Amino acid sequence: MIQIFNTIEDINEQAAAVFTAAAQKAISEKGSFTVVLTGGSSPAGMYRLLASNAYKPKIDWKNIYIFWGDERWVPLDDDRSNAKMSFETLLSHVPIPEKNIFPMYKKGITAEDYALEYEQSIRNILGTNGKFDLILLGLGDDGHTASLFPGEVVLKEQKKWVDAYFLTAQNMHRITLTAPIINNAEKIIVLAFGQKKAHALNEVLHGDYNPNMYPMQLIKPHSGELIFLVDKNAASSEL
Ligand code: 6PG
């Protein structure tokens, strides 16, 4: 499903409302809410909104488990860290127990080894079916999502839930959830705005199936829901 909004503020409101409703439903049904945060710049406004007085009191934060969809393999105080942005905009402002937060980075270990550890952490909380209640994703201008970049071997992964590799184009390691675990989710929200996303969004939604070039095409939840929240600039081909 695609929902098109006039402004970024409208997208943020809708994303925060979907997050809140999903958290309330999961916590009332099974006592906890498992959510995957996205990096990049797109979610910052939504995170700030969730931490604001309008949303914060509506959510039972102590029963939320936070994971990430991907991470640049840099220390948690590095400005490129997705976790750093998430703490600054949301996590430092809401009462989530520290033990419920799983940043995708650890000092003194390789990204590849930490990918194995991270998968185990997911199994410990989610069990063997690996079904997140909600996964937030961004869309890169080139059609990537999480750290599933065009042409990379990780796109073919069928078994592992978490993988890490050296992304030559950016001269850095990346760690990422893989398509199989993402597609298990109950609900997936993709945030995309701005003209520079228009080409990729159009290819993802209407182009030939070529996930090696547009990795977002790999995201097709088995039984869950996939919702694109986009603005009219990103969705110019839809209008
Ligand atoms: C990252 C990401 C990545 C991001 C897209 C969109 O760490 O880079 O998680 O997949 O979501 O590149 O980024 P923007 O939101 O900044 O456009």
User: What is the H/E order?
Assistant: EHEHEEHHEEEHEHE
CATH architecture: 3-Layer(aba) Sandwich
Number of separate strands: 9
Radius of gyration: 17 Å
Ligands and ions found: 6-phosphogluconic acid
Helical coverage, percent range:
25-40%
Name the quaternary structure.
Answer: single chain
From the helix content, strand content and strand pairing, which structural class follows?
A: alpha/beta
**Main beta sheet:** 6 strands, parallel
Tell me, what is the CATH class?
A: Alpha Beta
Question: Alpha-carbon distance between the termini?
Answer: 15 Å
Read across the widest sheet, the strand sequence of neighbours is 1-9-8-5-2-3
The coarse silhouette is globular
Give structural attributes:
239 residues; alpha/beta; Rossmann fold; six-stranded parallel beta sheet; 6 helices; 9 strands; binds 6-phosphogluconic acid
Q: How does this model look, in words?
A:
- With 239 residues, the chain is of the alpha/beta class.
- The chain has a single domain (2-238), classed as Rossmann fold (3-Layer(aba) Sandwich), CATH 3.40.50.1360.
- 28% of the residues lie in helices and 20% in strands.
- The strands form 2 sheets. Strands 1-9-8-5-2-3 form a 6-stranded parallel beta sheet, with helices on both faces. A 3-stranded antiparallel beta sheet has the order 4-7-6.
- The protein is globular.
- The structure holds 6-phosphogluconic acid (6PG).
